[in-house]
Design a protein that fits this description.
five-stranded antiparallel β-sheet; 15 strands; six-stranded mixed β-sheet; alpha/beta
Length: 412
């Protein structure tokens, strides 16, 4: 046999072996903020991905799950760079992420250029990632920021009696969404917002903001996350601040509650609402907590909302793959149809997607209380069932409010 023939046969055998290996593996990419002010939250996101994959024994439909991780720092360009590497260089077929709001908007746009891959949001919660101009291959199994705070505006006005507040929030798309979700019902009931302070992501010195907070307010709505939240809380206390707080979900996540510092007494009684509540007794939540604590003894006392949301997105992908026997052919047509139609029980209760591939889910209204171990927990007060992205309004009415921003909504 001629050398050319032998070489051709060897090459063909190599290609066939590579194709067989490829057919036996599904490549997952995960993008999380492993750098910057949300680094702890990013670590939690990856824990959620790993927990879901372990639950399936590392494989689905007889195919091994290969996990590749990309790091970002909460900035859109770093998230897109991580996605490009995972999809275009490493061959990721399914991407879980990103975590931060403006990252999600950027990845949504990037997904439109990569029709061969499917993208499942990790934890980013800017409204327009799915509400306006959605992408056919981008799926968000977690609520947006306005959904996160369902019930909180009403509770703040009616139960806490706070009629006039100031707001301290980071200056980008996710906090705009969360503030909108709080202000819409709060202002409709007659609540007033004396001042809104928009601060850059990663702010370390809050002294000028703290000095400018009006004296005649009843409370402060704080929607900072990660190290931003810890820095603000510490500095506000050091400055002698005494106004009670209302908290966005991310501000009293376990990544903040479990931090060391003098904030514990100040935070007790703080109302919040979130996709998680530490004292939720539902079996799906308690089983998730047990699995998390067993796998990650170095983790937080209970899983953060980002561990949950990345877990839910990853599990949704695995369940849909299971349903279609791992079929990702024809630009993943069958897989995406299964994902769109999927309904399943999560640690936060039953979830499904709407026509824009945005989740409908339960939300948990809580107050911060001392836990049994001396730490702080979010103690469940009530469940707001099956909150959709338009907060109960019809879509046309809700869209008429316009895109969220620094000044939308007004508070009349």
């Amino acid at each position: 046999m001629k050398l050319k023939t032998l070489t051709a046969l060897a090459l063909a055998a190599t290609l066939q072996t590579g194709a067989a290996l490829a057919d036996d593996t599904i490549k997952f990419g995960a993008i999380a903020t492993l750098e910057g002010p949300f680094a702890v939250l990013g670590q939690e996101g990856i824990r959620g991905v790993e927990l879901a994959i372990e639950e399936f024994g590392g494989e689905v439909a007889g195919k091994k799950i290969e996990l590749m991780v990309g790091s970002s720092n909460a900035q859109p360009d770093t998230a897109v760079a991580a996605a490009r590497k995972l999809v275009e260089q490493d061959g990721a077929q399914i991407v879980i992420g990103p975590l931060s709001g403006s990252e999600g908007l950027a990845i949504k746009d990037y997904s439109k250029t990569q029709p061969q891959a499917s993208f499942l949001n990790g934890g980013s919660a800017a409204q327009d990632t799915t509400l306006r101009d959605p992408s056919e291959n981008f799926f968000r199994w977690n609520p947006d920021g306005a959904q996160w705070v369902a019930g909180l505006g009403e509770y703040t006005f009616k139960e806490k009696g706070y009629r006039n507040i100031a707001i301290v929030a980071e200056d980008y798309s996710f906090p705009y969404t969360l503030v909108f979700g709080f202000m819409k019902p709060y202002c409709e009931l007659g609540g007033k917002v004396a001042e809104r302070f928009w601060v850059p992501l990663g702010t370390k010195d809050y002294s000028s903001v703290i000095a400018s907070i009006p004296d005649d307010i009843d409370a402060i709505l704080v929607t900072l996350g990660g190290s931003d939240a810890i820095n603000f809380l510490s500095q506000y206390q050091q400055a002698g601040g005494e106004k009670p707080m209302v908290a966005g979900s991310i501000t009293v996540d376990q990544s903040v509650l479990s931090s060391k510092g003098r904030s514990k007494d100040y935070l007790i009684g703080t109302p919040t609402s979130s996709p998680v509540a530490d004292t939720n007794t539902a079996k799906e939540w308690t089983d998730f907590v047990s699995a998390y604590q067993a796998k990650f003894p170095e983790g937080l006392p209970t899983p953060s909302l980002f561990a949950q949301e990345y877990y839910v997105s990853t599990k949704a992908a695995l369940l849909a793959l299971q349903e279609v026997d791992g079929d990702l052919s024809d630009q993943q047509k069958a897989f995406r149809a299964a994902l769109s139609d999927l309904t399943f029980l999560t640690p936060a209760g039953e979830r499904h997607l709407d026509e824009n591939r945005q989740v409908v889910t339960d939300i948990f209204l809580s107050e911060i209380r001392p836990g049994e171990d001396g730490g702080l927990v979010s103690e469940l007060i009530s469940v707001i069932p099956q909150v959709n992205q338009t907060l109960g309004d019809d879509r046309e009415t809700f869209l008429a409010y316009g895109p969220v921003g620094r000044d939308n909504p007004e508070c009349k």
